[in-house]
Structures are given as C-alpha cells and as structure tokens.
C-alpha cells in the first residue's frame, strides 16, 4: 500500500470513517502525513445532554466532545486549520436546560492560551457584552467571556474554533435554540468589521452555505417562541449572516416576534441564491426587508409558524404584503414554497377551540409578474382564495414559465379549512382552463396532503388523477403523517417528487 502514489492514498483515506482515520495515522509516519489532512477536512461534533432513560431504567451519561483540545491543536498547528472546509456542530437536549459545563476543566496552560487568543485577535471587545445561555452579565463584570470560558460555554468554544478556520465553506449549527449563538455571532461581526484579513484567522469570506437550527422539531421551537424574552437576541444573532459576501445558501429557523430593523448600515446586495426560512416566526414585513437585500434569490422556502391563539383573532398572513415582498425577486425567483403551521402552550386546548382560524387573507396576485418562476408549492388559500364561497375573487394569473404547481392542505389539521376534496375537484377544471387561456400551461399539478385526514381517500385521489390527465397535466401526490402538536419533517413535498 505504501508503494501507491500519495494522491491515491489521500483518496482512499478520504472515504474512511473518522475512527478509521485516527487508526490509520498511527500506523507509520508516511500514513500519518497522508491521512491527517483528511481528518481535518470535516469537523463534526455532537453534544448530548445526560438524561434518565425510563424504559431501560438507567441514566444515560452526557456526551461532551472535547472541543477545547481541538482548539488547542489548531493553535499549535495552524496549517491544519486551513484544511477545514466543513463544520457541523449539533446537540440534543431532553429537558429545559443544558448542563452548565460543556467541556472538561481547562488546564492552566489551556486557559492562558485561549485567553491570549481572545485578547490578541480583537474579539474581547465583541465578547464583552455577550449574554449567553441565560447566564446574565454580572454587574461590574468587564470581561464575562473569561467566566464563560472557565464554565466551559459551548457557544464560546465553537466561536473560537470558527475564528481559526480561514477556508471554511459550510457551517451547520444544529443545536437546540437554548444553546444560543451569541459568541458565534460576535465573532462573525468582528471578522466582517475588520479592516485587515489575516491568513491565519477566518474572515468567513469563503463561507457559501449555512444551516442554523435546521432540523429542530416544532415543539422545541415553540417553547422558544412562547418565552417572554430572548427574541431580540435571537434576531440580532442571525442578522450578521446576511452580510457574508459569498453566502449562497442560508437555511435558518428564525424566532422573530419583535419590531425588525437592520443595523445602521444595512447589507448591500448579497450573493444569496437560496433562502430557507424553516419553522420560523418571520412576519411578512420582515420577509420583505430580507428579500430587499437578496436580489439574486432563486429559491425561497417560507415555513411560517404562528401562535394558534393569534390566528383565531385576525388573519395572520396578508397576501398583499406577500405581493410586495415577492416584487423584490420577481426577475430571479425560480422556486417558491410556502407552508403554514401553528404552535400552542403545552396543555392548552387551542386545538379543540371551535372558533375559526382566520388564516390567509386573499390570494397571491404577484405570481403573474414573475419572469422566472418554474415551481410553486402553496397553501390552497393562496391560489384559490380562502373558501369555495369566495370564488367571486379573481383567480391569480400564473406566469407562462410556471411548470409545476403544488397545493398544500396545512390548515386542514386545525379543522378550519374549507377546501376539501369535493369543492377542490369541482373547481380545478375551471382553474386549469382559466390558466391555459392566460398562457400558463402547467405541466404538473401536485397535492401535499396529511394522510391522517380521511378527506382524500383513494376514490378522491383517483378522481384527481383522472381529471389531471383529461386536462393534459401530470398529477403528483405526496401524503405524509403530520402531527398538529408537533409537525415533522420534511416540510415540502416537491423534493419527494423527484
């Protein structure tokens, strides 16, 4: 094996699991030189909180990766830090609060080394005001990050690791929102505001894909949304990512329920092409401000989470506001997917409330102005109107470039949705003929349905298929079990069609 060219050995090592790589680099000096760079190409760490397993009647110990050892290694060998392209940090919690310590106790040498790192890199000023993981700043404390470092703060050590990665391309933060992003956000702001780029430290100018809180369940995010505080910090932590010059794909769960405004200097036109707002409480007026700085956007996924009690008092989504927001990307947007979900306090009876959900206010008329839209997945009400009784409303004209249209029955979960299979099948031929007359020749019509509902049985689906074929369109159906108290993933059906 040692007689093989180095390039072949590197290729072989790149396919090995992490544990096998660590074994390989211990074989000999030659394989150590070959395999060690592949070991640092991707960093993946997962924190798991300790919990009591009732089924097995045992306590599952917490998993706490020794991230401080990784940081120490990178400071000693900065050439290894330059090899890192992908970083995945994730975590799992089982109760309301995390264990306070996320790393082993630091040695005196490590503590001094990390303290010197923060002081020499200019991060101290940014870290001075960070309030992390619910631990407030002590009155008179000028450098709270030193205390957080001693306490083993996960966010702080992640931020310090990221600050040493000049060539990072992809960042995935899959933690529960209780973990916070304060230090990571402060590190990002410091790098963006720096007037000089250091080859040894990250400027985040190569970062083109970011996932924040992606993959979290609705129940976890609902707990965060229902808290009385923390919203301001949450949006402030996310905003710096929109200033990244090379970011092209951003997937994030944004808990925004406050007045929104950019900092003094809003971001210039970004290179962002894909924006996935998943399980987010982003109001449409906030969405408009985000789209205003993303003129190159090609894919928009907007998964809106609304408090159920609020939805029973007034319409929670305005189509007119949506039209204004989509006007910013009408020349570039190719794929548009919109979903609607609700959350409620644990133990509440909101789901049994007989009062109606006001839902979506009108239909989207801005779709006709799109010059590039080829795929759309929208709730029934955004295409057909709030109810069959409102059919006097003019149907939206669809762009000639649209090839695929998928209807979602999100609100059927809450027993407040009038577009059942019967009225929809009766109205669909009129819609297709209307759109064809206006030069919108849709090739595929899809349904994204909740299989827990018996409204769309086999006979209704067969009728839908027959109707589509008779109208020279291809039918597609995706059925998935959605739990109204904690809807699962994936949210959108379009990816399942492929």
Low-pLDDT residue spans: 94-103, 132-136, 225-233, 346-351, 483-490
Count of helix runs: 19
Number of domains: 3
SSE class: alpha/beta
Mean pLDDT figure: 75
Q: How far do the termini sit from each other?
A: 41 Å
Question: Which strands sit side by side, in order, in the main sheet?
Answer: 1-4-5-6-7-8-9-11-13-14-15-16
Please provide a brief summary of the model:
The protein has 498 residues and is an alpha/beta fold. Helix content is 33%, strand content 17%. The strands form three sheets. The chain has a twelve-stranded parallel beta sheet with strand order 1-4-5-6-7-8-9-11-13-14-15-16, sandwiched between helices. A two-stranded antiparallel sheet has the order 2-3. Strands 10-12 form a two-stranded parallel ribbon.
How would you describe what is shown here?
By secondary structure, the protein is of the alpha/beta class. It folds into three domains: 1-39; 44-165, no CATH class; 208-498. Helix content is 33%, strand content 17%. The chain is built from 19 helices and 16 strands. The strands form three sheets. A twelve-stranded parallel sheet has the order 1-4-5-6-7-8-9-11-13-14-15-16, sandwiched between helices. Helix 18 links the parallel strand 15 and strand 16 (474-480). Helix 1 (6-14) crosses helix 3 (29-39), helix 2 runs antiparallel to helix 3 (29-39) and helix 10 packs across helix 12. It is elongated.
Could you name the key traits of this structure?
twelve-stranded parallel β-sheet, two-stranded antiparallel ribbon, alpha/beta, 498 residues, 3 domains, 17% strand
């Amino acid at each position: 094996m040692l007689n093989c060219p180095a390039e072949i050995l590197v290729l072989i090592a790149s396919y090995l699991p992490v544990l096998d790589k660590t074994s390989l680099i211990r074989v000999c000096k030659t394989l150590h030189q070959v395999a060690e760079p592949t070991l640092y190409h991707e960093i993946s760490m997962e924190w798991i909180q300790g919990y009591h397993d009732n089924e097995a009647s045992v306590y599952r110990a917490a998993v706490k990766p020794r991230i401080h050892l990784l940081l120490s290694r990178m400071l000693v060998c900065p050439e290894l830090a330059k090899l890192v392209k992908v970083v995945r940090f994730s975590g799992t919690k089982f109760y309301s609060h995390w264990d306070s310590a996320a790393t082993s106790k630091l040695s005196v040498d490590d503590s001094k080394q990390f303290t010197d790192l923060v002081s020499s890199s200019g991060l101290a000023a940014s870290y001075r005001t960070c309030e992390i993981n619910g631990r407030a700043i002590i009155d008179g404390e000028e450098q709270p990050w030193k205390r957080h470092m001693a306490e083993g703060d996960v966010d702080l050590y992640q931020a310090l690791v990221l600050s040493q990665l000049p060539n990072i391309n992809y960042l995935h933060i899959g933690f529960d929102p209780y973990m916070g992003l304060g230090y990571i956000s402060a590190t990002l702001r410091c790098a963006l505001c720096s007037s000089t780029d250091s080859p040894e430290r990250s400027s985040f100018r190569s970062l083109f894909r970011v996932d924040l809180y992606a993959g979290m369940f609705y129940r976890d995010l609902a707990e965060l949304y229902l808290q009385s505080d923390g919203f301001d910090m949450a949006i402030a932590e996310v905003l710096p990512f929109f200033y990244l010059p090379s970011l092209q794909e951003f997937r994030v769960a944004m808990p925004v329920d406050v007045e929104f405004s950019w900092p003094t200097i809003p971001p210039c036109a970004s290179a962002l092409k894909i924006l996935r707002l998943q399980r987010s409480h982003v109001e449409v007026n906030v969405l408009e401000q985000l789209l205003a700085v993303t003129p190159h956007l090609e894919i928009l996924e907007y998964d809106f989470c609304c408090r159920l009690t609020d939805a029973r008092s007034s319409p929670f989504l305005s189509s007119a506001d949506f039209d204004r927001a989509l006007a910013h990307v009408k020349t570039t947007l190719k794929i548009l997917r919109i979903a609607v979900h609700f959350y409620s306090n644990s133990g509440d009876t909101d789901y049994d409330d007989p009062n109606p959900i006001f839902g979506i206010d009108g239909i989207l008329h801005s779709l006709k102005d799109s010059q590039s839209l080829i795929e759309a997945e929208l709730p029934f009400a955004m295409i057909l109107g709030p109810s069959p009784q409102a059919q006097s409303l003019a149907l939206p004209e669809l762009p000639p470039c649209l090839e695929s249209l998928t209807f979602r029955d999100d609100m059927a979960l809450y027993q407040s949705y009038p577009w059942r299979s019967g009225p929809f099948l009766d109205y669909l031929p009129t819609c297709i003929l209307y759109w064809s007359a206006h030069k919108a020749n849709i090739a595929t019509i899809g349904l994204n349905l909740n299989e827990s509902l018996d409204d769309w049985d086999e006979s209704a689906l067969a009728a839908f298929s027959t109707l589509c074929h008779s109208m020279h369109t291809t039918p597609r159906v995706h059925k998935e079990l959605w739990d109204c108290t904690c809807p699962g993933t994936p949210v959108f059906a379009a990816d399942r069609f492929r």
